[in-house]
C-alpha cells in the first residue's frame, strides 16, 4: 500500500513536471513574443536575396551570442549555426531555419514594408528565423534541465536550392553531429495548425529540357507541350491536383485520406519556357511525379510523344537538368513527434497529411539525406482577418501568432527529443 502511494506520488510528480515544462515554455514564449515580432519585422523590412543574407546573418549572430550560444559562421555563404549545450547528457539534434527573401515587388500590405525595392520576404523565411531564435531562447532558459545538445542551423539560399546542398558539401555534419533534424515551413493553413506526413511531403520535381534542330514555330512547341500533358498526366478519378485552391478542402485536400493530391503525374503548363539559340530551339518544362519508382519512365515517355508528334528527326537532346530531391520524413521520427506534440498540447494538435504538394519543395531534403528528420507545415493564415499565407503569392501575409505557436510547440518537441 505504502509502495503504491509512493509510486503514484512519483507518477504524479513526473506528470506535474511534464506539465510544468509546457507551462514554462508557454510563459517564456509569451515573455519574448514582442521581441520576436520586432526581430521578424526588422528582417521583413530588410530582406536579402539568396547569397546576400549578410545583415540577416549579423542579426541572428547577435541574438545567439546574447543568449550565450556558441556560434559558427565558417560553413557556407551567410549560413550560421548556434550551439546550445544542455547541462545534462542527451542526444545531439538540430533545428533548421532558412533565411533568404524573394525577388518580388508585390504590394506587401503591412506597416513594416520591405525597404529594398524588388526584394520581399514572400515565402515567410523571416517568420522561420524568428521562430528558430525563439526556440533557441526558450531552450537556453531551460539549459539546466535540457538533456543533450541542440544545433540551430540558419541556412542561406533556400530559394535557388543551393544553400543546404552546399552546407552539406562544406562538411557541415563533420563540424556538428546531430542524429535528428527538424524544420518547418509556413503554409496557408489556419494559424497554429501543424501538418505532417511520414515519407514524401511534396511531389518529385523534374525539369525537362528538349533541344531541337533549327527554329521551331511557337505553335509546334505549344502543341507538343499540351500533348505531353494530355498523354502523360495521371490523376485519381480525373481530379485536378494542379488546382491548389483544393488543397485545404476537407473532402479532397491534403488532410483527407481520399485526397486528390496523391498518385499523380502532371506537367506545369503555366511555366513553360522556350527560346532559340544558335539555330537550336529549346523547350523547358517542369513535371511533377509522386511516385519515386516512376521517375525513370518520364524521359522515355516524353520521347515517345515527341516521336508521335513527328518531331523525332529534329530532336537533338532530351535531358533532365533539374532533379531536386524531395522532403522525405522519417516515419519513426514523424510518429514520435506527433506523439510528443499531442501529449503536451492535446489531441488534434497535429493534422496528418495524406498527399504530396505539387509546384513546391524545400532543400531541407539535402539535410534529410544525411540526417534523418521531420519537416512540418505550420499554418500562418488568419482567414477572418483576411491574412492568407499562400507563399509566393502577391497577397502573402502571415499572422504573427504563428510565431508564438511555433516556438512553444517546437521548443517542447526539441526538449523531449534531445533526451536519450
Ligand atoms: Zn520558403
Could you give a quick summary of the protein structure above?
With 420 residues, this protein is of the alpha/beta class. It is built from 10 helices and 15 strands. A hairpin with a 2-residue loop joins strand 10 (273-277) and strand 11.
- Name the CATH superfamily classification of the largest domain: Zn peptidases
* Annotated CATH topology of the largest domain: Aminopeptidase
- Uncertain segments are none
Counting DSSP H or I runs of 4 or more residues, the number of helices is: 10
- Form type: globular
In total, the number of domains comes to 2
Q: What is the SS-derived class? A: alpha/beta
Percent of residues in β-strands? 15-25%
Explain what the structure shows.
With 420 residues, this protein is α/β, with parallel strands linked by helices. It has two domains: 14-201 and 326-418, Zn peptidases (Aminopeptidase), CATH 3.40.630; 204-324, ACT domain (Alpha-Beta Plaits), CATH 3.30.70.260. It is 35% helix and 23% strand. The chain is built from ten helices and 15 strands. It has an eight-stranded mixed sheet, sandwiched between helices. A hairpin with a 7-residue loop joins β1 and β2. α1 packs across α10 (401-418) and α6 (218-232) crosses α7 (298-308). The radius of gyration is 23 Å and the shape is globular. The mean pLDDT is 94. Residues 123, 125, 158, 185, 391 line the site of zinc ion (ZN). Zinc ion is lined by residues 123, 125, 158, 185, 391.
Amino acid at each position: 500500500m505504502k509502495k503504491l502511494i509512493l509510486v503514484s506520488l512519483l507518477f504524479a510528480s513526473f506528470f506535474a513536471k511534464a506539465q510544468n515544462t509546457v507551462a514554462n515554455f508557454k510563459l517564456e514564449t509569451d515573455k519574448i513574443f514582442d521581441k520576436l515580432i520586432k526581430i521578424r519585422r526588422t528582417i521583413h523590412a530588410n530582406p536579402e536575396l539568396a547569397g546576400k543574407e549578410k545583415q540577416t546573418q549579423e542579426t541572428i549572430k547577435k541574438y545567439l551570442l546574447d543568449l550565450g550560444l556558441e556560434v559558427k559562421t565558417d560553413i557556407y555563404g551567410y549560413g550560421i549555426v548556434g550551439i546550445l549545450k544542455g547541462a545534462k547528457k542527451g542526444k545531439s539534434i538540430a533545428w533548421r531555419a532558412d533565411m533568404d527573401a524573394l525577388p518580388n515587388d508585390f504590394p506587401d500590405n503591412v506597416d513594416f514594408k520591405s525597404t529594398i525595392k524588388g526584394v520581399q520576404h514572400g515565402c515567410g523565411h523571416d517568420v522561420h528565423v524568428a521562430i528558430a531564435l525563439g526556440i533557441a531562447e526558450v531552450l537556453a532558459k531551460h539549459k539546466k534541465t535540457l538533456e543533450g545538445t541542440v544545433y540551430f542551423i540558419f541556412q542561406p539560399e533556400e530559394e535557388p536550392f543551393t544553400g543546404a546542398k552546399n552546407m552539406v558539401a562544406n562538411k557541415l555534419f563533420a563540424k556538428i553531429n546531430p542524429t535528428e533534424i527538424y524544420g518547418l515551413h509556413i503554409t496557408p493553413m489556419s494559424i497554429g495548425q501543424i501538418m505532417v506526413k511520414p515519407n514524401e511531403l511534396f511531389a518529385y520535381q523534374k525539369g525537362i529540357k528538349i533541344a531541337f534542330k533549327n527554329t521551331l514555330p511557337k505553335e509546334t512547341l505549344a502543341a507538343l507541350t499540351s500533348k505531353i500533358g494530355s498523354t502523360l498526366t495521371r490523376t485519381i478519378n480525373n481530379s485536378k491536383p494542379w488546382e491548389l485552391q483544393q488543397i485545404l478542402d476537407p473532402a479532397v485536400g491534403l488532410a483527407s485520406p481520399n485526397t486528390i493530391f496523391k498518385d499523380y503525374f502532371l506537367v506545369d503548363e503555366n511555366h513553360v519556357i522556350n527560346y532559340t539559340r544558335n539555330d537550336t530551339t529549346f523547350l523547358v518544362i517542369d513535371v511533377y511525379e509522386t511516385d519515386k519508382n516512376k521517375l525513370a519512365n518520364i524521359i522515355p515517355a516524353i520521347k515517345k510523344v515527341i516521336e508521335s508528334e513527328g518531331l523525332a528527326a529534329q530532336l537533338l537532346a532530351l535531358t533532365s537538368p533539374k532533379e531536386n530531391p524531395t522532403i522525405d520524413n522519417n516515419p519513426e521520427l514523424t510518429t514520435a513527434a506527433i506523439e510528443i506534440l499531442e501529449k503536451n498540447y492535446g489531441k488534434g494538435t497535429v493534422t496528418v497529411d495524406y498527399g504530396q504538394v505539387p509546384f513546391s519543395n524545400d532543400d531541407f531534403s539535402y539535410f534529410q539525406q544525411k540526417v534523418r528528420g521531420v519537416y512540418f507545415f505550420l499554418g500562418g493564415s488568419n482567414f477572418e482577418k483576411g491574412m492568407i499565407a499562400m507563399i509566393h503569392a502577391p497577397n502573402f501575409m502571415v499572422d504573427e501568432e504563428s510565431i508564438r505557436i511555433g516556438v512553444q510547440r517546437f521548443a517542447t518537441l526539441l526538449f523531449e527529443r534531445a533526451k536519450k
